[in-house]
Amino acid sequence: MLMRYGRHEKALSGFEAHTTNNKMELLAAIKGLKALKRPSKVRIYTDSQYLKRGITEWLPKWERSGWLTSHRTPVKNADLWRELAVACERHQVEWRWIRGHSGHVDNERVDILARSAIERQLTDLPEVVQKP
């Protein structure tokens, strides 16, 4: 994640084993919003349609339906969606989707940060020995 205010910039990255890309997209937005010390006008760029459409289109419907999808199944990652909704309440958030891997400088940079976080963690994990 890349946070920018004026000339100030902060790059954050992390890793969580046994998760999905969608969960990590949600966690990045949550952690970024929670890192803000006071209510702010925020513009969040994401290459995740899941994140952008989820927060701007689907969330109100999920809340009205008791956290069920249009197919009447439980919403995946409902706990994180709720946490993101609460994190958004303090701020004026504008969501912008950008195409991933399309040469957008900041998007390419955060992809590198994410891959580096994964590589750092994988090199620190103990080897798994398989028995024959």
Main features:
alpha+beta; Nucleotidyltransferase, domain 5; 4 helices; globular
Give a description of the structure:
The structure is a single chain. This protein has 132 residues and is α+β, with helices and mostly antiparallel strands. It has one domain (2-118): 2-Layer Sandwich (Nucleotidyltransferase, domain 5). It is built from 4 helices and 4 strands. The chain is globular and about 40 Å long.
Low-confidence stretches: none
What order do the SSEs take from the amino end to the carboxyl end, as H and E? EEHEHHEH
Q: Class, according to the CATH hierarchy?
A: Alpha Beta
- How many domains comprise the coordinates? 1
CATH architecture: 2-Layer Sandwich
Report the count of strand segments: 4
| Helix-strand makeup class | alpha+beta
Overall shape:
globular
Total number of helices: 4
Summarize the structure.
By secondary structure, this protein is α+β, with helices and mostly antiparallel strands.
Write the layout of secondary structure elements.
Layout (H helix, E strand, L loop, with lengths): L1 E4 L2 E4 L9 H15 L5 E6 L2 H16 L13 H12 L2 E6 L7 H20 L8
Parallel strand pairs: 3-4
Antiparallel strand pairs: 1-2
